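Retry 2 of 3 after timeout on previous attempt. Resubmitting structure tokens to design endpoint.
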């Protein structure tokens, strides 16, 4: 499989995205469970189908662009809002960069590492893949200059706190369902979703600046735009009210770009106990 990744990494981005669109629709029609979850989540948003239908293809593009992003040549990239990161880092309090399952969340971390990582590296929280070969590849390609990785364990959380105390940056997906006892139930598009409290705890205990970031996938393989947006009222305390505020900010972002949201993600699933807990 790693050989397949290496071969795919040599292909042009437009071809990978084209094939990915086909893959997205194939999975949608061939997997009843995935299709039902996708449609249920999209219906929960209340948005018309014409706004989110393109997200079916976007999910496939997300899959097939990974080999190129991990092992291939650099892709076209530009920033919108990089000055917000610069201003936040200049304060010396650290930055919590939260990126939802929107667009290409892989490119957001890579772009930060390339632009700011030399002086203020990012520590990105990630959940290791279940398949050994993919977990091995993932750990090797995601750890690069200016970009460190932290697993979703107590050791990983401590690693993130240390990074912020040094005035550096941490990145995480706030709409990823955390293990049991590491989140609270808060509404997301009007339905209770188990949501991690880690971003709130990081900001509260370190005084770090919280920003929203996501990687917009441009059509026809033209590359990506990394958008950085202010989080007007950064979460400074743990609790359902604070996490509801976070989910509302994510909702607003998804409503603007529903065609690039990962509607097939099991956002409303019940949490499970962390291994070894």
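Retry 2 succeeded. Sequence:
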């Amino acid at each position: 499989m790693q050989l397949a990744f290496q071969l795919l990494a040599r292909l042009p981005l437009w071809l990978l995205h084209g094939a990915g669109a086909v893959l997205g629709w194939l999975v949608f029609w061939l997997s009843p469970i995935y299709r039902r979850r996708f449609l249920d989540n999209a219906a929960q948003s209340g948005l018309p189908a014409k706004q989110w239908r393109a997200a079916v293809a976007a999910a496939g593009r997300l899959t097939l662009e990974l080999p190129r992003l991990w092992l291939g040549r650099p892709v076209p990239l530009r920033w919108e809002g990089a000055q917000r990161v610069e201003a936040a880092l200049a304060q010396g309090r650290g930055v919590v960069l939260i990126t939802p399952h929107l667009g290409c969340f892989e490119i957001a971390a890579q772009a930060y590492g390339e632009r700011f990582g030399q002086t203020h590296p990012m520590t990105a929280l990630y959940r290791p893949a279940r398949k050994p070969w993919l977990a091995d590849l993932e750990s090797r390609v995601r750890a690069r200059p200016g970009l460190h990785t932290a697993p979703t364990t107590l050791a990983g959380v401590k690693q993130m706190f240390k990074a912020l105390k040094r005035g550096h940056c941490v990145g995480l997906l706030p709409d990823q369902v955390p293990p049991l006892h590491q989140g609270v139930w808060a509404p997301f598009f009007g339905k209770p979703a188990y949501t991690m409290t880690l971003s709130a705890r990081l900001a509260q205990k370190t005084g770090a600046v919280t920003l929203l970031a996501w990687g917009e996938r441009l059509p026809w393989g033209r590359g990506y735009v990394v958008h950085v947006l202010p989080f007007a009222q950064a979460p400074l305390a743990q609790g359902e009210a604070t996490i509801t505020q976070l989910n509302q900010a994510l909702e607003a972002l998804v409503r603007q770009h529903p065609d690039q949201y990962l509607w097939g993600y099991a956002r409303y699933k019940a949490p499970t106990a962390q291994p070894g807990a």
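Attempt log closed. The chain has one domain: 2-260.
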